[in-house]
Give the backbone structure.
Amino acid sequence: MPKIRSITYFGNLTLETIEDTLTQAGIFLKAASNAFCDYGVQTRRFASQPFPQWIPKAELLPQQGQRIFALAQAAGIDYVSLGTVRPEDAPAYVEAIASLFATQSGVFATVSIADREHGLSLPMIQRAAQLIDNVSRITPDGMTNLYLAALANCSHGSPFFPIAYHDGGEPTFALAIQAADLAVQVFRSAESPAIACQQLTTRIQQFTDALTPIAESLAAQYEVQFGGFDFSLAPYPLDDESLGAALEYIAGPIGNGGLVTAASLIMTAIDMAQFKRTGFCGLMLPVLEDSVLARRAAEGKLQVQDLLMLSAVCGTGLDCIPLAGDVGVEALENLLLDVAALSLRLNKPLTARLMPFPNKRVGDELNFDFEFFANSKVMYVPQKRHFNLNTSDYIPIVSRR
């Protein structure tokens, strides 16, 4: 049965109203958790508008991040997202994210590297890559990049972290759904891919139909808008809740071809269901959060380029990608460039959550004592680039017509 990975409350923060806003969010999230108690609510989260809009100086970010997280915890909120830094913001805000992460865990932030209005921002690509590299060394285990992502063409309102941020409007909430098990159950036993696709759509429809009245009732009672479902079939690191397993039930073992077809079939099932949508509503393929993907990556059968190719038809981009500690800023820039270009050309939201692990080399084993990660190995990416990032501020990539 699908679970609610997160009930995410979106609200506006100012330095003067942090405590009041988080208290109100906590009251709502507690009521929402009770209302959805039959659906396995895992976390309660809060997302603000982009923090450069309300924190007047970048150097204040670590202090305010600590304050916000302490107040959030007191209000019963598990995690906080402070939103994204955009190209028009001062570069110091990007650099301050590393200081935030060094002083406080449980707080997420992102860097926007591309949008439809401006195109692909080369300075933000460079800053994001350097930030990822710096953040990887905050702790010896390299896990701090879990709280960071680069965003390409991502709008507000997704309840999944790290992407979540508010648009500055009225308070809103949305539901992030963990439902890879649905795809596994359906495609493991169906008579044909077409029948499985229909069955998956039906199961998604039944689930959202059951939850929508509860969400609408909460919205009316607490005067908080319901933003919708991000039904992205998010996995959990067990084979029965693995999107990698679902893909293999359709196309056979990863590495033998057919992945794009399998992913497209599951995406079609999601798209055919009728419910209020927000965020990605696609396939999430976070390598380290999916037991089968982590295993295939360790076997060398799943490459980073495969995941980029899959991003063209589904997914969130490159998520939880295990990289060598010395992968280098140029290699990170390469990956960010490709994710950003894909997002703009296809007019879809994509993210990059890249995780260099200190003192690890390509092929080294990774063993985690973390509930949401599966063991794997460090993946290979090319480390040289011939693209000159210092030629201009933006590359004007337009969407396909």
In short: The chain has a mean pLDDT of 95.
